[in-house]
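Support request, please re-run this one:
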Amino acid sequence: MLKLIILAGLLYGVYIFFFKKTNVLNQNKKENIKKDSETLVECQKCGTFISVNEALISNGKYFCSKECVDAYNRT
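Re-run finished. Output below.
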């Protein structure tokens, strides 16, 4: 009987070590992706706020469109 309890405990430990850890890591990745998609940045040319995922980056600055990038570079 004691052997069965020890075996069950070991199997549970293996399950927690291999499967629960990856599940927690996947949740953290999903939360980070969600946070990035909700972050808003301001276009350097026109001042429009857009999400980081949709923004264009030129010379380390965020822009809402190619037209704003071109207009900013001309000035």
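Residues 40 and 50 are 5 Å apart (CA to CA). The chain has two helices and four strands.
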